[in-house]
Structures are given as C-alpha cells and as structure tokens.
Amino acid sequence: MTSRCARSWYAIAPEDQAQPGVERALFGGRVTVTAADPTRVELDGRALPVCIRDGVVFAWFDPDDGPPTFELPRLNARGWTRSSVDTLTCAGQPESVMRDLADYAHFESTHGYIDPRPRRGFWSDGHACGLEVDFHWPIVSHRSWPTMVAAFSNRCAGLGYQVSDVRALGGRFRSRHRVLPTPIDDRRMQVVLGLEVRLALPLGRLIAPLIHPFVRTAFRRDVGDDMRLWARLPDAESDRGDEALDRYWAWADAFASDRARRESASA
Known about the structure:
Blueprint: E1 8-14, E2 23-26, E3 29-35, E4 40-43, E5 46-48, E6 50-53, E7 56-61, E8 84-91, H1 94-99, H2 106-109, E9 114-125, E10 128-138, E11 147-157, E12 162-168, E13 173-183, E14 188-199, H3 204-230, H4 243-253, H5 258-266
Antiparallel strand pairs: 1-7, 2-3, 3-4, 4-5, 6-7, 8-14, 9-10, 10-11, 11-12, 12-13, 13-14
C-alpha cells in the first residue's frame, strides 16, 4: 500500500515559489498552481483543497475525492528566526518518513545520538502521532564532541506533516524542524524541510540568526542519514513483531484510500 493512495495533506511548494504556472510531478500526475491570492492547485486539471501553513502551500490529496478530514496545526513564529526552507527529491514514501518515530533504534544507530531514552514512547491519537525522547545531541558530527543534553518532541499530522521541537541548555536553546514529504510516484518523494531557531538568552534574537546556518547543516546531515532508511521502503510486513512499529503501521493504515484497500485485497 503506497502513499500515492493515501489521503492526507501534502506540501506542494514553499509559498514564495507557488506562483501561477508552477508545476510539480506529484501523486503520479502533474500538479499545477493555477492562481494566487487565494492559491489554487490542480492535479491533472482537478482542483484540490488547499491550505497555507507557516510559509508552505499544502494540498489535500485523496484518490477517492473525499474532503479533508483534519486540519494542519499553525506554528507560533514569535521569537523564532526566519524559516529556512529546502526542497529535495529522494527515494521513499511518506510512510517511511513518519515510521522513524517508532524506530527507536535508529536514533543511535543512524544519527549517532548518545543514550536516547523515550520519555513518552510512540503514541497516536486520530490523525496525529508523536514521540518524546531525551538524548545527548552531537552538534559537530557523530563521532566528535561537543554534545548537548537535549530533548526531542515530535508530532505528526497525517502522512505529510512532521514537526520536531528540540530543546537544549535547559530549554534556552530550541530548534524547530519540519519534514514534509509528498509522494511523486510509488518509489520517490519530494521532501520540504523547514527550520527555525530560538534562543532565550541575553541578545538571543541577535545571536540566533548567526547559529541558524550551523543547525541547518546538522539538520540536513540527519535527513541525509534518514534517506538511506527511507529508500528501503520498509512496510508493515518487514517490521512485524516490533511492538512500537506494529502500532505505527496500524495508525498509518487508517489513511489508506478505498482504492488502495481494494488493490491490496486483490493482490
């Protein structure tokens, strides 16, 4: 069962790039921005519901043409640096991205986080899921110092929206990471990355923009590490027997379209 057949909100493009005439190869077809103010998006000539969140244009995709069943959260921009946004294309599907939250082992084996300990294990509630982890964060590289004692709080809304809030220095340093995957076809996806930094320190508003590029580099490094896992296209069968991953796949399956269920039943 693939994300191309899963109903959810998915990122189309950063708002400043979503101008009329812009096209993207997504959902196995051609997505076109047909108007601005308000933004209109079409998939192969069919209008899709649209919302804009924190500088990114999202479209609701449902192969069964159903209406949106939930809303995306809005983030508070006050006190944060201006968001940096990157867009990349890689192998994988949105389910692979969200799956990371239930794969506790990958925090250490893939990212080199030191002594990761779930403070609140993988949870799900309707369209949302999440995880909270305490760990030592390698700022420079996986095998060098310094590290910071940090806390990681992650929340997903559907299969196309993931936001992580990392806190360190007793909460005085925070970085907010958005990972927004959108299926291109059955094996590839577009991923929009968003990052903001916040410092609750004297002159923090002046210092935060200076350290933002370094945090951005670390963020892109972590995503690059994750891409190797995403490319394997893990599924419920390959993960069977891991309690947290079993619960994750049960949550993800709720977004499957009727078409996907029919295809799965006839396979």
